Amino acid sequence: xxxxxxxxxxxxxxxxxxxxxxxxxxxxxxxxxxxxxxxxxxxxxxxxxxxxxxxxxxxxxxxxxxxx
Length: 68
Known about the structure:
434 Repressor (Amino-terminal Domain)
């Protein structure tokens, strides 16, 4: 099992750049990039902040599953 995410799709659907989402959540653009590419797993607090900014439930951004 691994943590899958829909962050990139949700961000783009809302017309946000990585930089804009980073500012809104108080992290760097690089952090947003590494989360989108499944290099970095965010803390619970950051996951909730991301979901809040995107106006979705955290379960809509992140889920456990098998990649591929």
